[in-house]
Each structure stands twice: as structure tokens, then as C-alpha cells.
Design a protein that fits this description.
It is a single chain. This protein is mainly alpha-helical. 44% of the residues lie in helices and 9% in strands. It is globular, with a radius of gyration of 17 Å. The protein starts with a helix and ends with a helix.
Length: 137
């Protein structure tokens, strides 16, 4: 979703579609989870440290994300606030197979790695938008 939002904001896409506006959520759009690239990098660093100290384990799985879902429309509005521009989007029908909401429970990462996300959706959009602008020029 974030790349599509940024590409639309940059004019690389004419518009984007929000699939479904009648879900039982805060604004009718699906709820998803996001993670800032720096939070992801930090979690990987902590996971490598954890793995080196727990070599008897074959593997461990950690869920990462903000941990609180963000609706598609909230993500769009966060982009608009960051960029200062109105995003061209269309409200469309639901897609088959889309779930109402999905987001991470990062409790295990917090307990075993000492990791918690430091960035919210606004920060994620700000970084993604600056990256998109740098990619263009």
C-alpha cells in the first residue's frame, strides 16, 4: 500500500483504488499493519544478537509491525498530511479474499529481543515520501 500511495502522489500512477468501504472498521476501509524500515532494521539487528546467544534454537519467529492496525484511509490521510497534497484515489468495491483487519502482535519481539516500534504511520509515510521524491530526482 505505501509504495502505491507514494507512486500516486508522485504522479507515477493516475490514481489508486481503496478496495472496500463497508468493512466494520473506524472508516469502512480494511485495517493493515505497517513497519518503518528503521524499526525493521533494528529488529533484525536484535534478532541476530539473539540468535548468536541462543544457538541451540533452530529458529525463532517474530511478528513485527506497529501492532495497532491502521485503516487504508488513515494511511492515505497520513500521506496527505506529510506531503501537503491531496491524493487521487477512488473508492471501489471489496476484493475477494481481503480480510477485514490484520496486524502484528509484537509481544514476543518485545519480551525476547527488547524491541518495540519507534515510528508511527505518520513517520512511515514521511520517510517513504522523501524516498520517493529522491528516487524521482
Amino acid at each position: 500500500l505505501v509504495p502505491v500511495i507514494c507512486e500516486t502522489g508522485a504522479g507515477l500512477r493516475e490514481s489508486m483504488t481503496v478496495f472496500g468501504t463497508d468493512y466494520p472498521t473506524r472508516d469502512g476501509s480494511c485495517i493493515r499493519d505497517f513497519i518503518h524500515v528503521m524499526d525493521l532494521a533494528h529488529a533484525h539487528t536484535l534478532a541476530l544478537r539473539y540468535a548468536s546467544n541462543h544457538q541451540q534454537d533452530n529458529f525463532s519467529i517474530f511478528n513485527l509491525g506497529i501492532g495497532a492496525g491502521v485503516t487504508v484511509l488513515e494511511a492515505i490521510h497520513a500521506f496527505e498530511l506529510t506531503s501537503g497534497q491531496k491524493l487521487n484515489y477512488i473508492l471501489g468495491p471489496r476484493r475477494d479474499g481481503d480480510v477485514v483487519e490484520i496486524y502484528a502482535d509484537y509481544t514476543k519481539a518485545k519480551q525476547l529481543l527488547g524491541w518495540t516500534p519507534q515510528h508511527d504511520i505518520q513517520s512511515i509515510m514521511d520517510t517513504a515520501w522523501r524516498w520517493q521524491l529522491n528516487k524521482l530526482y
